[in-house]
Amino acid sequence: MPVVSSVKNVEALTMTFVAEFEAAVDRVWQVWADPRKLERWWGPPTWPATFETYEFKPGGRVHYYMTGPDGTRSRGWWTITAVEAPHRLEFDDGFADENFEPVDPKDTTHGVVTFEQVGDRTRMTTVSTFTSAEQLERMAEMGMEEGMRSAQDQIDALL
Amino acid sequence: MVVGQDADLVFHALADATRRDILTRVIHSGQSVSELARHYPMSFAAVQKHVAVLERAALVTKTRRGREQIVHGEVTALRRVALLLDAYEEVWRRRAGRIADILDEDE
């Protein structure tokens, strides 16, 4: 497991998440820049992500969906707002309808991801800013579902 | 506000759809365990167990009203946001683990 830490601000609705990987900056950058690598980690194993459109440049559009265990698709969009390879990426992330149109264009989570070399590791810092508690709830729901399933998997493995 | 060890209790408590539903029902007004049990296709004892998990995580409290136990939500708005941020952190912890796996595999 990588070394991780986080800082949460309840009033500002932000979370800063820091992880250090034993790899060079360019290689960590590639897990974001290459959509085939990105879809191997963005969604949980039970809700894998598929990126259909991936314009990795400032102003670029991204369309993706996550497929649940029963085949349900949950769609999302990003607008990439900054790309400074291999050190900085910024994007707005929101929920999309069947045609990848934003459900509410103002209902977005802003993500800022920075990459820096620290010794022979790469530190990746992700700052997520939410516009409302309701939106945070939907994003967090994903973690809860995943937590529930892995707990269930552990029980199954014991039986 | 959630800190350190009780974050695990809280995360476990909220990692279940029935418990999240129970919490939602009792946030605004208390309900007895038997009132709650009517909403779920499970035994009274099973609902009681779910309530006990929520109680250990300090998400609900129980008070007595005659022969009944009333369950009350203990979640203020700020605490609720703190809990959600904890869950979102878990999303990123798992993502970081998967990124590390990819970096190892593709070396």
Descriptive notes:
The complex is a heterodimer of chains A (159) and B (107). Chain A is α+β, with helices and mostly antiparallel strands. Chain A has one domain: 2-Layer Sandwich (Alpha-D-Glucose-1,6-Bisphosphate, Chain A, domain 4), CATH 3.30.530.20. Helix content of chain A is 25%, strand content 42%. Chain A has three helices and eight strands; from the N terminus they run ββααββββββα. Chain A has helices at 25-33, 35-38, 133-158, and strands at residues 3-9, 14-21, 49-54, 61-67, 73-84, 88-95, 109-118, 121-129. An eight-stranded antiparallel sheet of chain A has the order 1-2-8-7-6-5-4-3. The longest helix of chain A has 26 residues, at 133-158. The relative contact order of chain A is 0.16. The mean pLDDT of chain A is 88. The longest helix of chain B is centred in the C-terminal third of the chain and has 29 residues, at 77-105. Chain B has a three-stranded antiparallel sheet. Chain B has one domain (4-106): Winged helix-like DNA-binding domain superfamily/Winged helix DNA-binding domain (Arc Repressor Mutant, subunit A), CATH 1.10.10. In chain B, strand 2 (60-65) and strand 3 form a beta hairpin. The mean pLDDT of chain B is 85. By secondary structure, chain B is of the alpha+beta class. Chain B has five helices and three strands, in the order H-H-E-H-H-E-E-H. Classes of the chains: A alpha+beta (159), B alpha+beta (107). At the A-B interface, strand 1, strand 2, helix 1, strand 8 and helix 3 of A face helix 1 and helix 5 of B.
Question: What is the structural class of chain A?
Answer: alpha+beta
The CATH topology annotation of chain A reads as Alpha-D-Glucose-1,6-Bisphosphate, Chain A, domain 4
Mean pLDDT of chain A: 88
Determine the structural class of chain B based on helices, strands and strand pairing: alpha+beta
Question: What name is given to the CATH topology of chain B?
Answer: Arc Repressor Mutant, subunit A
Strand-and-helix sequence of chain A, N→C?
EEHHEEEEEEH
The shape of chain B, in one word, is: elongated
* Proportion of residues in helical segments of chain B: 55-70%
Largest sheet of chain A: 8 strands, antiparallel
Biggest β-sheet strands, sense, barrel of chain B: 3 strands, antiparallel
Helix content range of chain A = 10-25%
End-to-end Cα distance of chain A, whole Å, is 27 Å
Mean pLDDT of chain B: 85
How many domains make up the 3D coordinates of chain A?
Answer: 1
CATH superfamily of chain A: START domain
**Whole-number total of structural domains of chain B:** 1
Name the helix and strand elements of chain B from N-terminus to C-terminus, one letter apiece.
Answer: HHEHHEEH
The unreliable regions of chain B are none
Q: Class of chain A in CATH?
A: Alpha Beta
